Each structure stands twice: as structure tokens, then as C-alpha cells.
Amino acid sequence: QVQLVESGGGLVQPGGSLRISCEASASIFSIASMAWYRQAPGKQRELVASITSVGSTNYADSVKGRFTISRENAKNTLYLQMNSLKPEDTAVYSCNAVQIRAGIRYAYWGQGTQVTVSS
């Protein structure tokens, strides 16, 4: 079982920056991949960015060049650095972790953190 706790969300003006964090209760060495998803009101949840255990990253086209996903293994923490924020980035951002044990895939979710981009 892995518990994920996000933090760092808030209100930011368009063009501003914000870094959100996701702390895992277990060593992220045991986690195959981690990702950030977001869901805006009235919209489906979408993948924002993901990172594997070896550091390979993937980004949604809408955030490429603006967002950076990273993981700090020593702190069991996943980050999402968001720059040049736009109003359309407003959403609840949730952390996801995938752990594989004995060939079985387990997915875990955090409770989410609200990011609001508005002047």
C-alpha cells in the first residue's frame, strides 16, 4: 500500500509559476512510474506528465515546454514545476503511482490539490 499526499497548490496569476509536490509513504524506488493528472470542472481527467523509475518523462502537448516533472528519490517525492501558467491550467492536480508486485500492477492516487490560474 502506498499513500500519496499532494501539496503546493494555490492561486497564481497568468504567466506565473507554481511547484506542486507529492510525497509517497513508501520508497519510490519500489514504484515503477509516477504521474500527474488533472481534472478541470466539467472535463475528463487527463494525463499531464509522467516519469518512470529510470527517469524517462512524457508530457501532454498542452504543457510541453512549460511544465517539468521530476522525482527526488531520497525524499520519496514527486514534483511538478509549472511555469507560464494559463487560465486553462486551472484544475485539481492528482498524483498517481504505479507499483508492480509479484507481477500484479497496483495503482494509487492522492487526494488532489487545487491549482487556480486567474488574475
What would a concise description of this structure say?
The chain is mainly beta and 119 residues long. It has no helices and 11 strands.
Tell me what the structure shows.
The protein has 119 residues and is mainly beta. It is built from no helices and 11 strands. Strands 2, 4, 5, 6, 9, 10 and 11 form a 7-stranded mixed beta sheet that branches. Strands 1-3-8-7 form a 4-stranded antiparallel beta sheet, with no helix packed on it. The N and C termini lie far apart (40 Å).
Q: Which terms summarize this structure?
A:
119 residues, mainly beta, seven-stranded mixed sheet, four-stranded antiparallel sheet, 55% strand
SS-based class: mainly beta
* Percent of residues in β-strands: over 45%
Number of E-state strands: 11
Shape: elongated
User: What's the story with the biggest beta sheet?
Assistant: 7 strands, mixed
Radius of gyration: 14 Å
Q: Please count the helical segments.
A: 0
The helical percent reads under 10%
Q: Low-confidence spans: pLDDT under 50, at least 5 residues? A: none
SSE map:
Layout (H helix, E strand, L loop, with lengths): L3 E4 L2 E3 L5 E7 L8 E7 L6 E7 L4 E3 L7 E6 L4 E6 L8 E11 L2 E6 L3 E5 L2
Parallel strand pairs: 2-11
Antiparallel strand pairs: 1-3, 3-8, 4-5, 4-9, 5-6, 7-8, 9-10, 9-11
